[in-house]
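This part of the workshop introduces the protein records we will be handling. A record pairs a protein's sequence with a compact description of its fold. Comparing a sequence with its tokens is the quickest way to learn the format. The record below serves as our worked example for the rest of this section:
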Amino acid sequence: MKIERLSYKVFWATLIGLMIFIVVWVVLQTKFFGTFYTYQKTKELSQQFEEVYKLYADGRYELNSKPIEVYQFEQRFYGLTAALYQRGTQIEVYTGGYITMPAMPMSPAEKPPNYEIDIHSGSPSNSSNEEKLLPSIPASSNSGINTDQLKTTLNTWLQHTDRLKALSKPGQISVTNISSLDDRNENMLLAAVKLPDAVNQSGGAAYLIALATLKPVGDAVQVMSRFYVYFYAMAVLLVMLFAFFFSRTITSPLVHLNKVAKQLAKLDFSASARINRKDEIGQLAETMNHLALNLQTTMAELQEANAKLLADIEKEKQLEQLRKQFVASVSHELKTPVSLIQGYAEALKDNVGHGLKRDKYAGVIIEESERMARLVSDLLDLSQLESGRFALQWTQVPIHEIVRSVLNKMMSFIHEKSIRLEWVEHLEQELWVRSDRQRLEQVLINLLGNAIRHVPIGGQLTLRVIPESSWVRVEIENEGQPIAEEDLPYIWDTFYRADRSGSREFGGTGIGLSIVKAILQRHGSSYGVRNEDNGVTFCFTLPLEENIE
């Protein structure tokens, strides 16, 4: 579902979080901005007013003058400074030439002193000639505070009986926030400090007061409030866009990684995460790529091992089949001579036949016994060669001499089938090879015997001895039926017989070629078999030695 998607959750989480931030910001600004600004303005006014107080308290300026530093103070706080003198219930205020106004009576309060307030634009020394006084700074004021505001503010401030009592010590500054008293919603700050008696030469108590307006702040807040309507509308739109793109930025690579993970789950290890980033997501993508590569390599190895295992299983099945065939072949090979030996032996026992006939019976018994002995000997040789316990007697052997010797032994079988023998020698001089003489003869006898069994009567048998760089190649080619292609890979396996009929004429026992293979492998030789146009060629190599004179 859509609501379960990560991008959907990230978008709404980001949007809600930013909207909460905006709402909290609006509430804080609405509720606390005015209070905070007033606090800051009060603190700043108190600090700056202390500097103004020091100008007079230190005696740098007379009270009947208003220097440029005071004027700058008034401009900074949109206010007005004045000197306030108290003589009993009589209060006179001198603004130093800024504003001239008549005496301002106090409004009644709950048991307040009945102060009589006079406000003058000059100084105490020349208040009778105020209209002739030339102040030290321009008489016009940019403070924005008019007479009514000054009257109202002072009247309100003096309503509290402890205002002046709180200023009993010189230099102790008091700043009072006076709320709006009319429909203009203008708040005022009134700062007051008692002057030292050394400065006050008129008698009574003298105070320095400063009146500052907070109206610019209120106007600014109102303007900002109207501006924030458009600002917050734009902010909401920007927040939504930011949340959308932020969610896409976070979730897009995760979606891509999820697709790659699904492909890996389907065993498609060719998938890779194409994310070029240096953060944790990029590291995750790189880790997934390494994982996919390792899984692909491991899977390939497993498939290779599985294929090898299947091949081994198949080969084991074939070997098991070969063993069964071997048992059948050996049983057949043993059964025939045993039956012949048993039959002729019983005939001799019963005195059947006389003279040459009895000799024939004895010859058959001897021949079949020798055949059984050869079969047992081959089995023992094969067992020793395959177990690795049989050691070859290495020596330098003349290959031509060995071939002639073996041909002489096999000549009776060759003449019996009228076989046309061709021996091809590429060099007249003798070639010496490193081998075991007895086992090399066994190889040649087995290969020639196999060829003689399969060559037809009157067929061709060719033997070649071909010298190469450091090897001698021996090839034995016979006419006859080719070996089936499906049998070629297994022709050297133990107990394997291409002729599955069990014929004594062609089949053999399936042991001779296995013995040849085991001996040649001990020589480090290469060997093989191939079909020709009119027959089959067996070949093998032997390591060539230096000629010996």
